[in-house]
Design goal:
Blueprint (H helix, E strand, L loop, with lengths): L3 H12 L2 H8 L7 H20 L4 H10 L7 H20 L4 H24 L3 H19 L5 H9 L1 H19 L7 H21 L3 H23 L1 H14 L1
Helix pairs in contact: 2-3, 3-6, 3-10, 4-6, 5-6, 5-8, 5-9, 6-7, 9-11, 10-11
């Protein structure tokens, strides 16, 4: 049976290289600049993945409680799914570490649930079924190795304009409505913070400037939606209260 020390070292070595393990736990040199950057990057990556597993749950709960996806742009979410999925498949094809892209898996699942909920509550259940079937088939093709890496790289390069358009659709929807409807402030703030953190981890773990630019654009436009939520906060609350009384 492995000792506690062996179990501890095996666990740490999943996230840190042997050199950094030696620096931290054998030489007790906790201020090695290179290893500190690696540890910080891995820690942020793990934190982002853990947070991403729950980031859209407040949004899902808000939709289910209201039995409505009003104010949430389905086209915008579909474009976001394109960005999430192409980033996920590109990272897998390039063999990037799970800590560099793992949140895409959880975001894809949660965003899909949000799209399905919006369609179901809009009495478009058949569209929801079609979406799930098509998305499952597309992801199989992208992740199975059937798609050439250069094609995945091209899709990844499209992420920045696609992400900008998806966020702009939501921004314009909010402006037209004059409120943010069932959009969850908690979810949007967490998405914004996660995108900001991903800029750093992408630089450190992948060095891929395409990914870095995607997260920079995502941070900028997610930040604009967060600002809208606070700008329309009182108006949105009043609108939802009036609607609840009518129903």
């Amino acid at each position: 049976m492995a000792s506690l020390e062996e179990l501890f070292s095996s666990l740490v070595l999943v996230f840190l290289p042997q050199q950094c393990y030696d620096e931290f736990f054998i030489n007790f040199n906790f201020f090695n600049e290179t290893c500190l950057k690696i540890a910080l990057t891995k820690g942020l990556g793990i934190g982002i993945i853990a947070g991403s597993a729950m980031v859209k749950i407040p949004q899902m709960l808000k939709i289910m409680k209201a039995r409505s996806g009003e104010g949430i742009s389905v086209p915008g979410n579909l474009l976001e799914m394109f960005a999430i999925s192409s980033s996920w498949s590109y990272a897998v094809a390039r063999s990037f570490p799970f800590t560099a892209w793992g949140e895409a898996l959880f975001l894809a699942i949660q965003t899909s649930i949000i799209i399905v909920l919006c369609l179901v509550y809009a009495k478009k259940s058949s569209y929801a079924v079609v979406y799930l079937v098509i998305y499952t088939g597309v992801m199989y093709v992208l992740l199975s190795g059937l798609t050439p890496v250069n094609v995945l790289a091209t899709l990844q390069a499209c992420n920045m304009p696609v992400m900008i358009v998806s966020r702009m659709i939501q921004i314009v929807t909010n402006i037209r409505n004059g409120h943010t409807g069932q959009l969850s402030a908690i979810t949007m703030v967490l998405i914004f913070l996660g995108s900001v953190a991903r800029i750093f981890t992408s630089i450190q773990e992948t060095g891929d400037m395409v990914l870095v630019c995607v997260f920079m654009s995502s941070s900028t436009f997610s930040g604009l939606i967060v600002l809208q939520m606070f700008w329309y906060w009182n108006v949105t609350n009043e609108y939802l209260k009036k609607k609840a009384k009518v129903e």
